[in-house]
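Sample intake sheet
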Amino acid sequence: MTDNHTFEGDLPEDIEEIEDEEAAEGVADRVAAEGGLIETTLGALREELGYKKLGRWVLEELDEHLAGQGLGFFPIWKLRPTINIEPRKEQRLWVYALDDSTRAQVLTAILQPEDHDVFAALDGLVAGRHQALLPQQKLDLIREIANS
């Protein structure tokens, strides 16, 4: 979930690169374990991804690592260094799996409306119109009904 406000060049000296790629997988594991959505803080993400300090440009690195793990987040502005110019470790952030789930489709349609048919996503998924569901979602719904 990157935007046109990217940082070009080297990171300032007081920002350390992520040291442990396995730590980055921990966020995705937590999201999966919690059913696709967690609430966390910028401080927790910073620590989980191996940074010692939370600076403006660490936000962009956090954004890239979440996207690399197949995760989205909101509110989006909290990981935008041009907007969140003084990030704080206690700032709360929701992180979700970018999968074919109804939750991900609705969130992505709302957060990135230029890339989605918002009307179809919201009306179809929220109102229960089955023609708006992806094939896998239709199969999951059939299994859920059959197992009820």
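Comment: The first strand starts at residue 37 and ends at 41. The chain has six helices and three strands.
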